[in-house]
Amino acid sequence: YGYIGTYTTGRSEGIYRFRFDTETGVLSDKALFAAVRSPKTVTRRGNILASAIEIDGKCGTALWDTRHIGKNPISVCCPEKQTPCHLRFAGSSLLATNYHEGFFTVYRMDSHHLSCARQIQCGELAGCHQSVSRRGYMLVPCLEQHQVRIFDRKFSPRGVILFPQGSGPRHGVFHPKDHTLWMVTERSHELYHFTFADTRFQEIARIPILPMDDPKTFSTSTTAAIRLSPDGRFLYVSTRGADVMSVFALEDTGAKLIQQIPCGGKHPRDFVLSEDGRFVLVLCRDSDDLFSIARDAETGLLGETVSHITVPEGSSICL
Fold first, then answer.
1. Which residues on neighbouring strands pair with residue 106, listed in sequence order?
2. pTM over 0.85
């Protein structure tokens, strides 16, 4: 099964579930998993699904048992004023970044019971958009501050990675086989490549994602998500506005753009690769689409759309 978090501004009723055939790539059996307000981000570990949630004007996170559709959450904790935009399991904690409030929250999970352990401020209007960890350190891209904040395992600040004004660092991935970080910027549409040792990050390249010969498309687009292929040889990036998927081959000399194709819908906010890397599932919020696109594991190239279902206001996806 796959799960989709949504905005609930009129078309969506909450979290949706669908079936994904890993052999054929076919999508089917879409159903409302839980009627809930503003579950715009979801993540899964085993039988537990975590989502953003809004209840009676209070916001935070909720845990759900994926074995029971249509049931109430097994735990809810709402210490936030706005819903978080990104969730990630980390040991016995659930980490939530809040774009609107400029902080991230550490939720403790005790036998699947959520409690707020602490909140770490990143500054007014920081635009915290994600958290990603490697070797005991955590990075939090602060889009509006044009920097990435670095924290240690005790969530103490350990420095920043500075980006140019107007760039807007949004999402990143660590490569599991070397000391490199890849990060995309929402507004300048660039793929940044860093090497690192402990908390010292050195920029070694920045690669354009969109061409600048179309100023209107460039200025009205926002780059969104980045994913690494299971074998670590290719990077995938979605860009809203231009509504394209970009494929980068990772080489000894860096990254090379090898393909850029229309995603099939409007506003590809999130996507995920299947575990075997044979398919890419692209979620388009504004056109209410979920596409299953074939992928060549050897070349990294995306092929034909093999399946499609309608999902309203989709903003986050996990399998």
1. 95, 118
2. yes
